[in-house]
Amino acid sequence: MPAADRALLIFAGGRATRLGGVNKGLLRVGGQTILERILDALGPLAAERVALGPADALSGLRGVRSVPDLEPFAGVLPALAHGLASTTADVCLAVAFDMPFASRAVFERLLQVQHERAADVVIPRTAGFLEPMHAVYRRAPVEAAINAALARGERRMVAYFESVRVEEVDAASLTDLDPPGRAFFNVNTPEDLASARQAAGDDLPGR
Hints:
Elements: E1 6-11, E2 28-29, E3 32-33, H1 34-42, E4 48-53, H2 55-58, E5 65-68, H3 76-85, E6 91-96, H4 104-117, E7 121-126, E8 129-130, E9 134-138, H5 139-151, E10 166-170, H6 190-200
Helix pairs in contact: 3-5
């Protein structure tokens, strides 16, 4: 599927309390903001680039179409539903605003799995946890399934899985694409930010 049929959804929904409430996407890592790093790495994979989150987190952003949350800080499932509703693209790539090493190569592998297995959701699992904000979604069926789950009062991230075709990808199978194991790294604390900045000093070409 060509990039014209895809949207990149960048989620900025966290409160960043452990970082003093700063806009994490505008923190600088390796000489760029995290948002710039995400757009450089993943922008070529999608024709549309959408940033979603609280209105104050979206102010002043460049290179994206900003869509304020309807229900700020409501959790992953409502945020994902809102993101999918913000576009008409067939396939959506979801990534968090605080992932400075989000990987184009990993997303290309996820897209390959999605195409080959006709999956509605392709989601990595790392250290026993699913990564919904570094995953691929087929918009129409997933949006419908999530809305049905929310209508039932479900907020669990996996509440809609039984209604769609889900392919989990073990992060261990992605080490050839992400040798340092950084793709799913989130900046949540000052220590995380320091680690990201240190790692960016010897970052790999193409991320």
